Amino acid sequence: MIVVPCPNCGPRNSSDLRNAGELVSRPDPDTASLTEWRSYLYLRENPAGWVTETWYCRTGCRRYFTIERNTATNEIRDSENS
Amino acid sequence: MSSNRLPIRGGELLDRSTNLSFTWNGRAYSGHEGDTIASALAAAGVEIFSRGMKYHRRRGILTANHWDPNLSVQVGDEPNVRAGSRRLVDGMQVSAQNVWPSLRWDLGAVNRLVGRYLSAGFYYKTFMRPQFLWHNLYQRVLRKFAPGGRVHWKTGTHGEYDKRYAHPDVLVAGGGPAGMAAALSAAEAGASVMLVEQEPELGGHLRWGGPDDLAVLADLNRAVHSTPGIEVLCDSIVTGRYDHNWVAVVQRNHEIAPERLIKARVGSLIVAPGLVERPYVFAGNDLPGVMLAGAVRRLINLWAVKPGNRAVVLSANSEGDAAVADLESAGVEVVAVLDARAGEDVVGARGRGRVTSVQTGDGRTLKADLLVTATGWTAPTSLLNMAGDRPVYDRIAARYFPQSLPDNVLVTGGIAGDGSTTELTAHGRETGSLAAQRALRLRHDRLTQTPRSATPDSALPAAIADNRIPLRRSPHPECYRSTTHGLVDYSEDVSSKDLIQATGEGFDSIELMKRYTTVTMGPGQGKLETVNAAAVLAEARAVEMADIGTTVWRPPFSPVSLGALAGRIFEPVRRSALQNWHETNGATNLLAGQWVRPDHYGDPMTEASNVRENVGIIDVTPLGKLDLRGPDVANLLDLVYVNRWQKLEVGRVRYGAMVAEDGVVSDDGVTGRLADSHYLMTTTSSGAAAVWEMLEDWLQTYRPDWEVHVTPVTGGLTSINVAGPRSRELLERLVENVDLSAGAFPYFSVRTGTVSGVQDCIIWRIGFTGELSYELHVPSGHALHVWESLLSNGSDLGVAPFGIEAQRILRLEKGHYIVGQDTDGLSKASTAGLGGLVKLDKADTIGLPELRAAFERTDLPVLVGLQPDDPMIVPDEACQIVEAGSNEILGRVTSSRMSPTLGRSVCLAQVDPSLASAGTAVTVQLVDGRRITATVQEHHAHVDPEGARQRV
Question: Any bridge partners for residue B472, and if so which?
């Protein structure tokens, strides 16, 4: 179990949080084609390396925040998007 | 019964004033406090402890410690107990495993006669075909021959296992001299330390050493126990190391639990397991009487057991030389010492049931009942593998060494190199100090990551360099296999011949060979076997050991009982403020997600009828309730629900359905507008937490500009549904300052008022049951008063409580679907019959493109009301709807009950669109295989489809 740093609550076991997945941008639902929408729904980069992802501090402060995590080493660093 | 017990030894662990009685295969034995099961039996002359897995040859003591592959025994109803390390307890009932009918006369030994057919890959080759025999024959026969003890799962005497979380700065895996020294210096540097040792006492190899070693050990023991900040866990094993130094420790014999799993988040992990002595491969190396040097030293020095009478010693190192001295001091006649460093060798041991003679490399035959080998060491690098290291073979030292480790994992002791006790403890101290500095720096960094903590002052540098003087690597001859073949894996009965055969068949990488032959796959997980297996493979392929690599060691380091892994469960159970009342008034409970709630109070059919005829009250507190405040609530509702919300007036409520971004129905409920910017949202009981998280997600990450506060009030408000034709009459007696008349308080409205003197109750008029009904949301502190008032003021109206089962009957009669029961992970809004509700012309709503796409499709299943033609048959939920005359599946029954109102069975079903029109006859296959016919109804509702009853 890895340690994830919540900006409010500090480093916590990942079981205290929920991984909300890779950060993706949502297309405009009124104008997006079905193909664009489904790539937003289902397609992820899933690299063996650095990924920007969202976590939810579900047992603590209830904040959604983003971090950068290396999926090969589980090294974690701040994200510009947080 | 002969006695092999020696006179008192200087370092013995025995308390000779004690006398512990136990049985071995039904016979009475005795031993002393401090004995292991094996030492007590060996002292009494027992030589055979088990049988080999495949060939069922007799097996005796090999290593006399935790890793001994021949000493797995059954103790009472506990299987696979390691008799080499488990301390004797008075009254133990110990028996041999994997033997039938007895250890002495074991029928499985006939396998020896067919041994040549049981070679590498035997199982794969033999039990492949024909496939039908696998289930009927092979499996049953093989089960009989499977090794291991018996689990008596019904006895229930295993007690309560436990779990613990710990956060030591430094965890030391291994309590030998280096590990003890590391723990000491880490604690002195200010770190909190957990020192874990698998044997019942600290000291490692010092325990069976001479007077000098014992003196050092006594000093170390005194220091460890008097230094604050060190928690010592003996009889405990570090079984795994995971990312971010998450370390699993299994603690045995804790006062409150037989085993406890400790999950530790560790700053620095110090790996100091010492070295594991390796067996030597030669013909007859599994005969009882063939022992490792460490085994005889432990037997003699720790437990005062004489391991034999006439010994031959094959020695390649100082441990072998020390064993010679120990044997002589114990009165064992040492017939010959063969020096492997000078090229002397053993090629065979012979005997029936026990060694009687030894063949040497130079052709001599020596009469002996004990053959001791000291041929080298295996570094148990499991925890290093788990930290990402791939240890490298050093041919000069004839063992593997760590290659590269993360900063938070350090090694000391034998796994790091060789040295005198002084050198090892010095290295341990330096390692402990370095580990502590790094851990304290990490602790400092983590504390400063928490904004609300005061920033601790730290003078520690960010990166702390490793300036330790490395331990040297002493040369050691590469002694793996003699010129003859023998066992490599004692637990799995795999010989060097099997490995060479496997190489010939093409399984010539260590990982493939392991899986094909099962070498290293036994309970020891390769501690004794891995390096010998690699050596045999290198020999077969004529390459260097370094080019072979080793198998990757994964958790667990040592077998863990399932009880320890399961531990105790701390799942909380949620109870409404009325749950005590329910339980004292005859409720049968139901566990629904986290909640415990009344299923019924005796007769759900009567409860349901009473709601249709009079009035019933039900506790629906688990219903998710979210208090929404702010000027942008309507925008949020427009986004998360498929329908429109901008025009909902104050005092009105509306039904809403939610879909996810993929258009699948995710939740539903009623939301009411209590004031200008104040709403109360209800969700399904099971979806309460998920909907809250979802709202927060959209508000925090998508529309942070919207001003909305979401507060969960599920438990704060107790929800009571008052349902039935006489519900208004009942409430009129209790409600103040709200006009309940149909004109003033119409269907789908909300009012706030006083109920039975309790202020600020929210009352909304909705109807899940299909009757005139009011849902009260009462501050939980006063809920019991309101509940009891409803009952005491309505006895003349026939008021009675009803449970979940009656509510399910009522809602099914009314055709209200339940998200997750009547819909599934593929159900779009159109399937659920929400076509009229969905507004596709909104600019933004969750899943909008999928909602639009779904409405263009005509092939999606449709939810319909369904009635079996035989009104007395209630098909089980999830029964398939099939094509008559074939097995093609065309739908399924999603809900079914006997309706007390109609006196017939009623269902909801998902069907293929070709079957969706009213009057269509469909075929339902029942669980018992019978097929019945049923007819699709015009409405979901079986009772009052027009809704007249709820609008009065």
Answer: B418
Paired residues of B366 in beta bridges: B358
d(CA A42, CA B15): 68
Q: How many CA atoms lie within 13 A of B85 on its CB side?
A: 21
Radius of gyration of chain A (CA): 14
pLDDT confidence of residue B456: 53
pLDDT (tens digit, 9 = 90+) per residue, B32-59?
A: 999 999 999 999 999 999 988 888 889 9
Q: Does B903 touch chain A (CB under 8 A)?
A: no
Burial B772-802 (b: 16+ CB within 10 A, else e): bbbbbbbbbebbbebbebbeeebeebebbbb
CB under 8 Å to B708, separation ≥6 — which residues? B628, B629, B630, B632, B633, B636, B699
Query: Do B299 and B324 meet the contact criterion of CB atoms below 8 Å apart?
Result: no
CATH architecture for segment(s) B861-952: Beta Barrel (2.40)
Instruction: Using an 8 Å CB-CB cutoff, list chain A residues near B700.
Output: 63-64
User: Which residues are B549's β-sheet partners?
Assistant: none
d(Cα A40, Cα B487) in Å, to the nearest integer? Answer: 58
Note the CATH architecture for domain B162-275+381-448: 3-Layer(bba) Sandwich (3.50)
Percent of chain B, pLDDT > 70?
93
CATH number for region B480-556: 1.10.10.1100
pLDDT in tens, B312-356: 999 999 999 999 999 999 999 999 999 999 999 999 999 988 999
Closest residue to A10, CB basis, from B449, B661, B853: B449
Query: What ipTM was assigned to the predicted interfaces of this complex?
Result: 0.96
Question: Cβ of B662 under 8 Å from any chain A Cβ?
Answer: yes
Q: How many angstroms separate the CA atoms of B598 and B801, rounded?
A: 10
Percent of chain B that is helix, strand, coil (3-state, to 5): 25, 30, 45
Pairing relationship of beta strands B735-736 and B678-683 according to DSSP bridges:
unpaired
The secondary structure of B153-207 as a DSSP string is TTS--S---EEEEE--SEEEE--SHHHHHHHHHHHHTT--EEEE-SSSSS-GGGG
Which residues on A lie below 8 Å from B662 (Cβ)?
A: 41
Q: Where are the domains of chain B?
A: 1-150, 162-275+381-448, 279-375, 480-556, 614-811, 861-952
CA distance to partner chain B, nearest, from residue A23 (Å): 10
Of the candidates B203, B204, B202, the one whose C-alpha atom is nearest the C-alpha of residue B235 is B202
Which of A37, A39, A43, A69 to mutate: most B Cβ within 10 Å?
A37
* Rounded mean pLDDT, B937-945: 95
Distance between A1 CA and the closest CA of chain B, angstroms: 6
Quote the CA–CA distance of B62 and B52 in Å, as a whole number.
13
- Tell if the CB–CB gap between A13 and B844 is shorter than 8 Å: no
CA distance B707 to B794: 44
CATH assignment at residue A23: 3.30.2270.10
The two most distant CA atoms of chain B are separated, in Å, by 114
pLDDT: is B128 or B755 the higher one?
B755
Q: Say how far apart CA B509 and CA B549 lie, in whole Å.
A: 9
CB contact under 8 A, A56 and B453: no
Which pLDDT belongs to residue B1?
Answer: 47
How would you class A16 by CB atoms within 10 Å of its CB: exposed for 0-12, middle for 13-18, buried for 19 or more?
Answer: middle
Contact B845 A41 (CB under 8 A): no
- CB-CB contact of B114 with B510 (8 Å): no
The Cα–Cα gap between B531 and B523 comes to 16
- Alpha helices, DSSP H only, in B601-676? 604-613, 633-640
* Domain total of chain A: 1
**Sign of the alpha-carbon dihedral angle for B757, B758, B763, B769:** negative
Specify the pTM. 0.88
